[in-house]
């Protein structure tokens, strides 16, 4: 080591010169007699003792192991048809073509879900999923194999509506108010969260319109951020006191902006506006379902809507209370028909 330092320093360095002169630190063999002395030291080290040859052999062995370990469908000859057809043959390009088209007799193995395993379900968020309609939707989504997250503040929703899913690894419930933002990773968002019966939404009108506006804004923002498909559950009440019967989708309604039902009517109208603005402005894939009067199991006895009121009164053998002149009309639907429309019509699943 000392000799190397002495040599590179050369005679220009007085201290090196001194060391060289003393002779005790100099190499016994003159540096000029070394083979490949003109190479830098690192290259000389690599070249010594046939190291390049060993490195080359090592690379060949590694390449051979890599080829043998590749999936049988690709390693045992599937590459040949692609290269012969002029395609670039490689691990990635093999997934972008249909091997059966090239070689119908051979089964393509790599990249396929093994037989017996079901296709992975969607990740779905249902806001208001513990409510009357929401819980039926959750049942349907879980049954078709989706992973469902319910977000509900349990104002009108009830834990009992979804308790039968507790323990299912594909089900999760978060007690949360959509008025506050939340970040989740899902493929689809069904936004149902809002009290829907007049007695409930009139109980705290400011909270009702906040839920419809701020809550919907939060969920649309989430959908935009994660690229999820979005379904807004709106209401027949966006038509207000309609002057047209039955109401067609193109009818704009006859709504009182300052009435006692306005927190819900106008709240849902704003929610629809936001949904369409996100669709037009952010290219979000959206659906809007204007739900008419729905009835069925899990409806609260004190829900306040006409069907539950009439049934409860009939059970108690009380006279039915008819508001107004009784000439008003409604379109009624059973809850399973509604849920069917969400999954079949609106989301195409
Ligand atoms: O005990 C009752 C209850 C209600 N009614 C009348 O029955 C009609 C239906 O009223 P409901 O309270 O059931 O509810 P509405 O049809 O007005 O709206 C309801 O259904 C549609 C949903 O989108 C709304 O969210 C929900 O409020 C109204 O004309 C109401 O005045 C009665 O005559 N007696």
TrEMBL record:
Keyword rRNA processing: no
EC numbers, comma separated: 4.1.1.35
Known pathway: Nucleotide-sugar biosynthesis; UDP-alpha-D-xylose biosynthesis; UDP-alpha-D-xylose from UDP-alpha-D-glucuronate: step 1/1
Main localization category: Golgi
Reactions accelerated catalytically: UDP-alpha-D-glucuronate + H(+) = UDP-alpha-D-xylose + CO2
Biological process annotations from GO: D-xylose metabolic process
Family: Belongs to the NAD(P)-dependent epimerase/dehydratase family. UDP-glucuronic acid decarboxylase subfamily.
Protein name: UDP-glucuronic acid decarboxylase 1
Species name: Triticum turgidum subsp. durum (Durum wheat)
